Amino acid sequence: MTMSKSHAGRVAVITGAAGALGREFALALAAQGCDVAIADISAADHVVAEIEALGQRGYSEVCDLSDPGQIESFVSATLDKFGRCDILVNNAAYMPVIPFAELGLDQLRRFQAINVEAAFLLAKLLTPGMAERGYGRIVQIASSTTGTPMPGFLAYITTKMAGIGLTRSLAAEFGGRGILCNALSPGLTLTPESRKNLPAELFESVCERQLIKRNELPSDLVGALLFLTSEGCGFVSGQTINCDGGVQF
């Protein structure tokens, strides 16, 4: 018996899906019947090939999300190709570790541009079509660091908190028009980039504070993402869903 796909016929836009979490999200959505468009600072042609291997249409564009013009160009090309967008996943994040004493205003503004303003502009460009059709799902990828501030993460945490505020406010704006907006908050996730940039001791200490005693992997977030972008999520909006192994702050 053929199993139906939960997201059949939908179109998803995902930022930062050339690797790690975003790639996992893109492939999971494609496996459930979504066509997927990707905006990333790095080329994502390999992910598009994987999406197409799953029988769905894919599109990617190298896009600096701090540049509104590039975002507008990406959205225009996506709508030309797919005709609409039903799901927006704001996954891309700018997150270098910079001590407060070394953090300049220009650097803070780049965090703001990529982590908050890009999500705002994508919602601005894509929600009119969602509202017209009476269906939309927006998921903002948040961070467990908002509950456990650490030195060097001031700009990242500040903008991740702003992203949660943006999500809750969008939920209020669009709740009567079928567009549901939620944040998904991962814990410390083991990826090639995080393994390279963060000390092993940090992974060990976080693991000790989790109820689930192992490192979080990108695949651990897929179930929550699929729920928040599904028709079954019809009465959940304005929420932040923690998917962090039950970390105890």
Automatic annotation (TrEMBL):
Q: Which Pfam families does the entry link to? A: adh_short_C2 (PF13561)
GO MF terms here are: oxidoreductase activity
Q: Gene3D superfamilies this protein is in?
A: NAD(P)-binding Rossmann-like Domain
According to the lineage, what is the superkingdom? Answer: Bacteria
Which keywords fit this entry according to its UniProt record?
A: Oxidoreductase
Q: Which family does it belong to?
A: Belongs to the short-chain dehydrogenases/reductases (SDR) family.
- What is the protein's given name? SDR family oxidoreductase
